[in-house]
Amino acid sequence: MEVELFNLHGKKALVTGGNTGIGLGMALGLAQAGAVVAITGRDQEKNSAACARLCAVQPGCLQAVFDLEELAGIEPFYRSVSQELGGVDILLNNAGMQCRGRAEEIDVRDLNRIIAVNLTAPYVLSQCFAREHIANGTPGVIVFTASLMSEAARKGTSAYTLTKGGIRQLVRALAVDWAEFGIRVNGIGPGYIQTEMTRPLVQDSEFDAWVKKRTPLGRWGKPDDFAGAAVFLASDAARFITGQILYVDGGWLATF
Ligand SMILES: NC(=O)c1ccc[n+]([C@@H]2O[C@H](COP(=O)([O-])OP(=O)(O)OC[C@H]3O[C@@H](n4cnc5c(N)ncnc54)[C@H](OP(=O)(O)O)[C@@H]3O)[C@@H](O)[C@H]2O)c1
Known about the structure:
Elements: E1 12-16, H1 21-32, E2 36-41, H2 44-57, E3 62-65, H3 74-85, E4 90-93, H4 108-136, E5 140-145, H5 158-178, E6 183-190, H6 199-202, H7 205-214, H8 227-234, E7 245-248
Helix pairs in contact: 1-2, 1-8, 3-4, 4-5
The structure holds NADP nicotinamide-adenine-dinucleotide phosphate.
């Protein structure tokens, strides 16, 4: 097999939520494969620390502070990052938030907020990316971060499950719309991964034991488990793959 297929030298990537957790795991993978990566998040300190790690792997990586809830600012934000990077070949729509609580108790403002961050913002960012590539006649790759909640539901996560189910269908819809322009659209679906987002679950000993028992590979996932999947989908190795979700879940969805 040609290892060269996975080479991302000369490619530029934008990773939302790339300053920590799964996003940083994927960003580091892309940088190790040769891509220059821009990461974004709201927290300047987290951005700077992550950017330093990325630059140690691939000089020229950069960071930009941006809050994806500011939907009207997404287009100018995308344009400025694209200009600074010299174009964006790979867009990883990874940033996301959780909203826990029983469905009858969810405040509609919290519902609108999670829809904005997890669904509307990546949709709008993808539009910006696609418009640029369609205008320039250049191919591109988009990867969304989906979830087990794209396929199944768990008590107390209705708002989150709504957004991640939407991501699964969005991946298919955009893949179909943009295939003719050479834009591939796929998703990565994490299982239970140890990050800031799942800290309350990891600290709950009963839940922690359930995850380890329920996951065939017997452990929580780690951010660096995502480097390989991100590089694969972003690279020419996946050149005939579009509209798919690749689950990186230790086998969770394979059993019940
Ligand atoms: N951990 C899991 O088990 C798991 C499972 C399935 C799917 N996922 C998905 O994986 C993705 C990454 O989650 P994670 O577990 O790595 O969580 P995390 O460590 O909490 O990271 C979340 C990232 O999103 C960014 N972010 C959140 N809200 C934002 C906003 N309004 N504007 C811009 N950036 C924002 C955060 O940066 P700032 O705080 O600096 O803004 C951070 O970089 C999410 O889409 C999540 O739904 C996680």
